[in-house]
Amino acid sequence: MRELFRRQPRFTAEPQSQDSPAVPDDLWIKCPRCGELVYTREFERVHRVCPRCNYHGRLTARERLNLLTDPDSFVEWDGDLEAADPLAFVADGESYRDKICAVTRKSGAREALVTGSAAIGGHPVALAVAEFGFLGASMGSVFGEKLVRAIERAVDHGWALVTVSSAGGARMHEGPFSLLQMAKTTAALARLAEAGLAHLAVVADPCYGGVTASYVTVADVILAEPGAMIGFAGPRVIEQITRQKLPEGFQTAEFLLAHGMIDLIVPRRGLSGQLATLLGHYAAAPVRVAAAVVRETSGA
Amino acid sequence: MLEAPSAWDRVLRARNAARPHALDYIGDMIDGFVELHGDRHFGDDHALVGGIGGFRGRSVIVIGHQKGGNTRENLERNFGMPRPEGYRKALRLMRQAEKFDMPVISLVDTPAADPGLGSEERGQSVAIAENLLAMASLRVPTVAIVIGEGGSGGALAISVADRLLMLENAIYAVASPEACATILWRDVARAPEAAAALRLTAADLFEFGIVDEVIPEPVSADQEPGPVMRRVADALERHLAELEVGQHRDGVDALLARRYAKYRRIGRWQEVLPAGIAANGAELLAPE
């Protein structure tokens, strides 16, 4: 089982202090929710889930890929797409371009979405995984373009689409271009639906704004991790504007499940298996089988 | 010499309560308008109005955000911020347009989708997303006009159309200048600066290729609504007629293909190739 989830070396950001003496700070990690001290290596081994309170910590896109996909099956698409600066956006003397460079250096990621082909439990999929460490995985032009290309390739190949989202919403720095990515990605999903292909959306903490209000919530199945915060407006904004006291557990995955907004809450260790089961069912549905026959006989 | 209005001036004009709102335009240009109510799921949202009527010889479905002209009206209209039932009413009416092959006219004027507790509980996100999905493939011509504030996802949810038009003093933004200033600088007082940075004016949106036409306001609509409303109706007729001719000649699938292409190309990015590879894929000679 561990072998299945083994880290692929090229995706792992190794700690800087490899050959220096062990620093006590790195040895133990304090759970941000319950305060439990967890041995760091144990925390990493269970994919950053607190053994005491089941808190699900954030994963990078690469860690997410290693967790979900069959070993060595992931092939990245469009990794060379980078943000342009169409508004010539400057905030406090820092240009958007400089900001991107700084974030790239810090996070090691080039953009807020990683896409590619992969297998999950043997089922081929087009996969799109948000990178929260890159400007809060905000959706700008590159995010939208990569997602649309992934959807179009899913249609071409007759694959299902799996998205993993954890995002703060639309990216301010690209103004109206960011806003319109909501329309662009959703329009592409209309084509996926016409082709009879499934979209399974995994939602991780936190997921808000233009991302929940576009491609995520129109998925065929929405799976959330336990405790993930999911919503349209953030809780602080709601409290400020309405001056209402928000109920306990507001906007948690459990709250959304109770209100009929998501299908399933799946603990991290079970995600890959749950996706594989669902992919198997949708692949065996009559509409998909018929489409595959047409593709084969037409030689595509 | 008069100075050109700043982005912030445009924001203030777009929000001016004296500007005509959706029902004013409807009263001016739609014959025999009948307002239709309710989403058939939960309620009737007064921040988003819709109905059926005649426009220059054809039946149309009209939907629009509705702000109030004063505080009392604004409380009734929730300041033009729709709740999920508003978006679901719009969707119901758009489906009806499809059923009877009527074009959809959409009047956009909202600060944002309602950010309240009840809206979250009833699925504000999915209500917006479902409209984006439906409008992308609605099998009738659609024209949206930003008449005031085009606030973020709340505006987009009724503006994914074949043609997007904007009044000269309207704005269309990914976030309100106040929200942007709060996010970037934690200082709402810097909203005017954020307004400039966000590039939210009609001229900006036209330059970006997102808006198809800017409708001029020689005198701002808040001062003289009549001439502006007539310009809106004339522009609307022109765009609808073009779309109808196109649909008649090439079929509705061609209409949808053009709509997809319109949204598909929106975005700006760069493709950075690995060192030593030219843009045409040829390998460059390594430098000495």
Structure overview:
The complex is a heterodimer of chains A (300) and B (288). Chain A has helices at residues 24-27, 40-45, 61-68, 96-107, 141-157, 175-194, 209-216, 235-242, 253-258, 271-283, 286-297; strands spanning 28-30, 37-39, 75-77, 81-83, 90-91, 94-95, 113-120, 123-130, 160-165, 199-203, 221-224, 264-265. Chain A folds into two domains: 28-57, no CATH class; 59-281, 2-enoyl-CoA Hydratase, Chain A, domain 1 (Alpha-Beta Complex), CATH 3.90.226. In chain A, the strands form three sheets. A seven-stranded mixed sheet of chain A has the order 3-7-8-9-10-11-12, sandwiched between helices. In chain A, 38% of the residues lie in helices and 16% in strands. In chain A, helix 5 (141-157) packs parallel to helix 6 and helix 6 (175-194) packs parallel to helix 7. Chain A is of the alpha/beta class. Chain A contains eleven helices and twelve strands. Residues 1-23 of chain A have low confidence and may be disordered. In chain A, a hairpin with a 2-residue loop joins strand 7 (113-120) and strand 8 (123-130). Chain B is 43% helix and 18% strand. Chain B has helices at residues 7-15, 22-29, 71-77, 84-99, 117-121, 124-136, 152-156, 177-185, 191-198, 202-207, 225-250, 252-264; strands at residues 31-35, 48-55, 58-65, 104-110, 142-151, 163-167, 171-173, 213-215, 269-271. Classes of the chains: A alpha/beta (300), B alpha/beta (288). Chains A and B meet through strand 4, strand 5, helix 5, helix 6 and helix 7 of A and helix 5, helix 6, helix 7, helix 8 and helix 12 of B.
